[in-house]
Amino acid sequence: MRPSACLALFATTSSFVHAQSIESLITTAAQIAQAIKITLPNQSLVLVAQPYYWWQSGIVNNALFTYGFVTGDKQFEDLSKNTLYNQATAANDFMMPDATGNDDQAWWALSALTAAENGVAVPAGSPTFLSMAQNVFNEQKGRWDESTCGGGMKFKINAGDAGYDYKSSIANGLFFQLAARLAKITGDADTLSWAEKSYDWMTSTGLIDGEFNVYDGTDDSTECVDLNKNQWSYNVGAFLYGAAVMATQTGDAKWVDRTRGFLDAAQRNFVRDGALYEPICEGNGSCNNDQVSFKGILARWLGATAVVLPELKDTIAALMNGVSANVRSSWTPSLGPMQHFVALESVDAAVRANGGVAAAYGMIGGSKNVVKRSALKRSVAGRISW
Predict the structure, then answer these.
(1) Are 99 and 168 in contact (CB under 8 A)?
(2) Does the keyword Hydrolase apply (predicted)?
(3) CA-CA distances (angstroms) from residue 89 to 83, 103, 112, 135, 155?
(4) With 0-12 CB in 10 A as exposed, 13-18 as middle and 19+ as buried, what is 204?
(5) Whole-angstrom distance between the N-terminal and C-terminal Cα of the chain?
(6) Is the confidence at residue 367, as pLDDT, over 90?
(7) Is 30 exposed, middle or buried (0-12, 13-18, 19+ CB in 10 A)?
């Protein structure tokens, strides 16, 4: 992006006006992306070191893809692309040994879908990234469990695993978002109906309440009457962007209203002093290796929502300008991979929300159905014992 185009784009918050431009944000994003790569034990694969988890490698892989699409710097694209093929099974479905949960598998499917949405080249004779995401979605449709609670996705895949009796919001949120994004890229009506079905299930159980708070999950051994009301930032993020994608393809204003509701919930529950904040664990310093990454996932989907729903762009820009200023004031190259991940997603989101997008993330062919807002107005996902 030319400096002349970058420097004209400023946000309304004073921290952004004084300290940040699109150009400077992109410079910082480049530094953070390089710091992430340096932390990788194998420089040819985006697999983060233990004690971090395999699913977190999936989100970091997605982050490096997204960095390239946002900034135009594609130096990590082959690395991320090769990692997807390396982590795919013979069935091209990411059912690796560490894919014990539906969410574990879905994070990798979403990374593949990000590549597909943005036209990453597929090597001759290789499966497409879209087919990889579809394979995961089709498998997960088969795991939709109507034996209890009227439906929903279980947290764990295999009976007997801890968490198998738990229907988690992250497993259902990723399934919903995967369905919404696949429906948009393929135009498949059945896939779209699955997105509607999975969203409706979340509201019917109360896991999404009337104020768009997203609770962590519920115990299906008691027919989902007992809700775990812990709230984590990535849960609302999953539904925020999924709802935004539904808005762009259905033309139904209810999805804009829902997206706005999730945005309000994100600001209400996960922002403190201009920074993204994980209230359950951050205040007492107890965030574990899973939880430390959640804010970065919310940041990613805030930025993506600003792209697909321009009517929310200014609100998200004001939020992410403050967040990115906080990140930039505290980020150093010596941090760990998940801290780098959160920083990169936060800065990239500020770039997107302020219009500095090199490629419209998740916007194959542009948005043909952007709608106007109507005149209406104990956590398993957190790896705490349920």
Answers:
(1) no
(2) yes
(3) 12, 17, 13, 11, 21
(4) middle
(5) 48
(6) no
(7) middle
CA 278 to CA 187: how far, in whole Å?
36
User: Which pair of structure tokens corresponds to residue 109?
Assistant: 């499917």
The H-or-E segment that residue 175 falls in is helix 169-186
Mean pLDDT of 208-221: 98
Tell me the residue ranges of DSSP E strands in the chain: 166-168, 217-219, 227-228, 271-272, 275-276
What pLDDT shows up at residue 1? 39
Q: Which helix (H) or strand (E) holds 113?
A: helix 102-117
Helix (H, G, I), strand (E, B) or coil at 89: coil
Farthest-apart Cα atoms in the chain, separation: 60
Q: What are phi and psi of 129, to 5 degrees?
A: -70, -35
Q: Which amino acid is at 326?
A: N
Q: Are 186 and 160 contacting, i.e. CB atoms less than 8 angstroms apart?
A: no
Rg, Å, the chain Cα set:
19
Helix (H) or strand (E) holding 190: helix 189-205
pTM for the full model? 0.90
Q: Give me the domains of the chain, ranges plus CATH numbers.
A: 3-353 (1.50.10.20)
DSSP characters over 349-367: HHHHHTT--SS-TT-TT--
What value does the mean pLDDT take over residues 126-143?
Answer: 98
Pairwise CA distance, residues 322 & 270, whole Å: 13
Distance from C-alpha of 40 to C-alpha of 336, rounded to nearest angstrom: 10
Can you tell me the distance from the alpha carbon of 290 to that of 170, in angstroms, rounded to the nearest whole number?
Answer: 13
Q: Residue 357 — very low, low, confident or very high, per pLDDT cuts 50/70/90?
A: low
DSSP 297-348: HHHHHHHHHHHH-GGGHHHHHHHHHHHHHHHHHH--TTS-HHHHHHHHHHHH
Question: Residue 385: is its pLDDT beyond 70?
Answer: no
Residue position matching structure tokens 């957190």: 382
Residue 218's beta-bridge partner residues?
A: 167, 227
The pLDDT of residue 20 is 74
Identify residue 323 by its one-letter amino acid code. V
